[in-house]
Protein arginine N-methyltransferase
Amino acid sequence: MASPQQPVIDPPSPVDDFTPTFYVGHHESKRPLPVTDFVLRQAQDVGYDMLTSPITSPHFHSRVLTLISEYLSELSLFEASDDAVTKSTPPAPIIPPLTPVDTPLTPGDTVSQLIAYSSPWIDLCSSDPLISNISRQVLNIEIAYTSFCGVGNIIIPGPRSYSSGSTNNDGLIQYARAIQEALTIGSYIQMAIHIPMYGNDEVKDMTGDLRPFARDHHSAAKGKSIKEIDLFETWDAWNLIRSVCKYNSRLSVALGLPRQLPIESLQSRWFAEPLRLLSFTPSTFLKNKGGHPVLSKSHQSLITRYMRLKLPPWLLLCDVGPIPGLDDPLHRTSTADGFPSPTAVADASRSVSPTPAEAVDLLSKESQKPRPKHKDPAAHLIYMRYLQRSQPLRTAIEKFGSGYQDYLQAPLQPLTDNLESVTYEVFEKDPVKYDWYERAIAQALSDWTEQRKPTSSPSGAVVIAVAGSGRGPLVTRALRASEMTGVPVELWAVEKNPNAYVLLQRHNEEDWGGVVKVVKSDMRAWKGPLRSTTGPIGQAITTTSPAPASPYGRVDILISELLGSFADNELSPECLDGVQHVLAPQFGISIPSSYTAHLTPVLAPRLHADISHRAITDNTATETPYVVMLHAIDYLATSVPDHPRIQEAWEFVHPLPATTLAVAEARRGGGVSGGGGGSMSGGDGANEHNTRSVRLKFVCKDRGVVNGLAGYFEAVLYDGGEAGKVELSTRPDTIDAKSKDMISWFPIFFPLKTPLYFPDDSELEVSIWRQTDDRKVWYEWLVEAFVMVGPDKRMRLGMSEMGSSRKVGCLM
Ligand SMILES: C[S@@+](CC[C@H](N)C(=O)[O-])C[C@H]1O[C@@H](n2cnc3c(N)ncnc32)[C@H](O)[C@@H]1O
């Protein structure tokens, strides 16, 4: 059964006028003027949407420096005196409150277009307790005042050291703790940590930097050795910070984009994180033939991809020059909304980015020569606006899913709930599913005739039952398949939803010429076609079935669509077992004939944050498998580069061997071979044949965090032998080959209560069970992380808690 909580889609407009809005901001590391109303208007006239503002002034900065140097001289006097032996060191100084000259910020109308930028000259990671203490005080004063002024967003420069290895990440932990504290000080403000995508661009020659003030014996990284770039190091640092901050929803990333983009796996990793801003410096840009700043092709695709996030990040142009018109009123030429000439935005002749060595060379050359004045001081902004206009239109799937990315939906109780008409309407919009069913039915009917199989109707028509007909689309398709193939059919529509039953009868009168037998029943209680009034549609070709002993006949083709996002999670196996008694014993077939569930571990920080938040008021939140259109996630295991490695968990095949059903029947009610808790999960063991379990190994090259398991399904509707299979798939790696553009199902997400961290080159073992107690079906799941410690030896690093959906299990 498809997910009936999917969005009800408005009819598509003839022209898709959607283009993602680019909110572009301007940041200057050394903004010379306070951001007044006038400055803001000037920036907006040129085409900027927002400006950053420092929170404190150079006056405050020098006040802090003076405080430190006074304290240090006091300390050296103290250390030289006799007191040093008897008394303890004087406590660190406290920064006195801000005065008007200490800050350019003030509450007012302008703050809504401002992003506060906290002081980059502090060092929260410093191993000198004095420096880290003062740095924390500066940050806290700035956060508190920004929050007081009503500014909604603040950018905090990332940690000054990123060492993620075992050598020294002391500073990082201090940084993370300071951010956690800051979140409690500004309790409404959104904080973005400014972090490079990879590497660490050391801030060079920052006047008044606190870092060099760290006293020698505290300074751990003197004479830092040159080390290889660890691509995932900055992500690792971010992961540490947000973990200490318990995935706080007000904490996000301002991601610094480098000139040379990293491997795709790192780009995907950041895509999954809460990106509030993407920042660009002049060095991110290339120059085209005309000398205009442009972005490489790979940057352009990255922006297109990132701007399709549910909450597209804002774009921050850093140090690209002053706001035109402010420094030089005569220079106010173009605004960014004007259309630039083609030469201005033509791609750079070398669309490939330079190698790191070339980039270093380029950068050093660029830094040596005096920076030329841009022809147009708004050139970078103009280019961004041009990119905005040239964004590709959304695909059909993007349009369908718009607004539903990463939106968690509670699971269904398909047997106890009756769907609304509007929900059926959503399924019926699927452009693929019904066509594929029609193909499968047509192929099955043709094969039936070709193979001269006997039918179960007195007239010789092939007897078809649509079990769970809903509003009848599969009935319509079965009639069409009969017409197309010329194979006569006798058609039964069985539905338990009394409201849908009304519509089925109406359709029969108005659209199907009254040829369909409509039955209101739970399929498991249906006894089969009542042999009296039904006549065939079209002409009979074979009539070899013996007259049934009972008044009820049999069904040749049983059609159903009871699949959930994880195939069997809405109890298709239990329903189809329950109706199998109506199927012709030797030749009867089921469409679908089989289905499989598939899994892969994923990083999904946004989902984790959302679920943790729900868990405050709902104690089943972390134990619920959710239906969700997964979007901002990262696949942790890949097979061929950049393709998710998704593995099959288990399969269900229909019809079951008669012996299996006979054993189940015998066990029901505590009969012979089971009963009385014979099954591990309770019950009589009558549904034991529908339990499953599997343990799957996933090799992960890059370190990461597992937040849960993404689940998909595949189904074989009909296997036509040489003619091929008619299949459905929701797996991202096979959907295009099997059922491209199918939209009826979103994936399922099995959450982990506590994220599980693992290092590079780990193995994740995923265990999952389908459990039943004859009244309910539920899942249990667990992830273990291992690293290889020798050629044949691996060590368990940790494991998740066992997830179990027993409390929210599906009632049979
Ligand atoms: C996903 S809907 C499919 C509806 C329709 N066949 C389609 O493809 O659009 C599944 C339908 O099966 C019905 N259903 C589920 N379990 C059933 C049962 N045990 N007996 C009869 N109908 C059932 C539901 O009420 C629902 O109408």
Q: What stands out?
A: The chain has three domains: 24-64+91-216+230-401, 421-588, 594-811.
